[in-house]
Amino acid sequence: MKWQVFGVVISTIISALGLGLIVWQTDPAVASPLLKASFFVALFILAWGGSTLIILSIKKRLPKPRPLDKSTCESVLNASILFGLLFPLLITAAILIKILF
């Protein structure tokens, strides 16, 4: 499970760096559609990874009725990834609704 959490951390860091680079180096008024799409993809991955890590840290600190074993830790990670996906999906839907309507 540690390598999976490490992968989430690395992808979150890379997307934060990419998002920072896009914001720092690009003027939004003259940005191409591909660059704008890259911005939103990096923002989505950053929000997904960040919310996954936050939910995972909260779930790990909650009292457990039984000791954690390998399968329990993996189910906690999987649940955190799925619940962490809800937050960026809601944000993306709100942004798309605001842009389209």
Could you please describe the fold and organization of this structure?
- This protein has 101 residues and is mainly alpha-helical.
- The protein has one domain.
- It is elongated and about 55 Å long.
- The model has no long low-confidence stretch (mean pLDDT 84).
Quick recap:
With 101 residues, the protein is an all-alpha fold. It has helices at 2-25, 33-61, 70-100.
Strand-helix topology:
Elements: H1 2-25, H2 33-61, H3 70-100
Helix pairs in contact: 1-2, 2-3
Task: Sum up the structure in keywords.
single chain, 101 residues, mainly alpha, 3 helices, 0% strand, elongated
Rg over C-alpha atoms, rounded to the nearest angstrom: 17 Å
Oligomer: single chain
Number of strands: 0
Helix content class:
over 70%
Q: What structural class do the secondary elements suggest?
A: mainly alpha
N-C termini distance: 42 Å
Number of helices: 3
Query: What's the overall average pLDDT, rounded?
Result: 84
Uncertain runs:
none
- N-to-C SSE series? HHH
What spatial form do the alpha-carbon principal axes imply?
Answer: elongated
Residue share in β-strands:
under 5%
Q: In this structure, how is the largest beta sheet organized?
A: none
Whole-number count of domains: 1
